[in-house]
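REQUEST FORM: STRUCTURE PREDICTION
Request ID: SP-0412
Submitted by: Lab K.M.
Chain count: 1
Length (residues): 255
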Amino acid sequence: MISLNEELYRIQNISYKKENTLLLSNIDLYQYKGETVGLFGLHDSGKTLLSQIMCGELNPSGGYFFYEEKPVSHSEFSRHVFMIQEQTSLIGSLSVMENLFVLRKHRLNTIFVRKKAILIETINLMNELNLSINPNEKVCNLSKLEQCLIEMLKAYILGAKLVILDNIPITIFHDERFSNLIYKLKTRNVFFLITSCDIYQLQLFSDRIYILSDNHIVKWIYNERRNKIDISKLFNQPITYIESPSVFLVKFPSV
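STATUS: Completed
RESULT:
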């Protein structure tokens, strides 16, 4: 069951200004442990920009961060966050296991890798999470789904408690291997923020949805009536959105 008793994080009054242009204004967002949150916005609404701030890639112009109900600095907050995007951040020329574990320099400035040790560790982690991907395979030879699974595994290894899935295609969400890994990680206290310009994707896979428009959050809603939300009423100005007939109802198992 989803617990609504303890916050994982909260951000307040987050703003971001670039060259005197306000791109994000007074963003408030929170997430409880146990829930999956969706962030909806049209293209260029600021979803990725906010994600980059949360994971530490960009510094905000102002605002406050809380982790597990305690005030923290932006840098401390971002240590708990990992972002995965449609375009993978993995190094294609390296193997799966080399991407998962940081290569370190020897004192003689040569790259020193204990391949046997990291191979064993990779296999153990994959067995723990029921993943069946060849640890020696180069990342460039993997499918988009497999690359996404490896990035999720990397987030787990790095100790992330919030994984942002930024504009990941809905086709990946519908794959059983993806949903199974989501469930496994949630049982290990790793939770997810899904950003998308597809409201129906968020209705299928999140428990609560924030609506981002005009550089700020205009509303948030509980996702109790999936596929029943009139999205045109959530914006300051009406928009038109046509539901794809191929969309069907899928929900991740509750933790």
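NOTES: The chain has two domains: 1-80+161-255, 90-160.
Reviewed by: T.R.
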